[in-house]
Amino acid sequence: MDSYDPIKLGDELRYKELMDRMTSMETSMTGMKEMMKQKMEHSQSQPSTQQIANEMWKFVQPIIQAQRNLADINHNTHMELIRNMVEVRYKVTQLDIKDIREHLVKTTSSAPATII
User: Rounded distance, CA 40 to CA 32, Å?
Assistant: First the structure.
């Protein structure tokens, strides 16, 4: 097997070519290792999806709370308007009933019994 050794055969060019290839492969491997290391460091420095979701929730939660508060305020305002409307209508109806009674008393001298 020693007869195929490029140095013993005097094939310095072949030996140099093989050594250059090995050096090139080692350089490529070192570069790839460095890129993999950088990729790992970069991926570790990025926040996880859970961390991103928590950060987003911190920003969105006050907006949701403000919307709920606004909805409560709008609901209460709307209900107050309905209460006022019903109360006014009740008073107007009572006045109408009173006017009808007075008119009946004037025209017939008697008023029907109150049903309500």
Answer: 12
Q: Per the structure block, which two tokens stand in for 63?
A: 């907006």
> Count of H helices and E strands in the chain?
3, 0
Contact 24, 32 (CB under 8 A): no
Write out pLDDT tens, residues 69-91: 999 999 999 999 999 999 999 99
Question: Token pair for residue 39?
Answer: 């990729």
Write down the pTM of the prediction.
Answer: 0.46
Can you tell me the distance from the alpha carbon of 41 to that of 52, in angstroms, rounded to the nearest whole number? 18
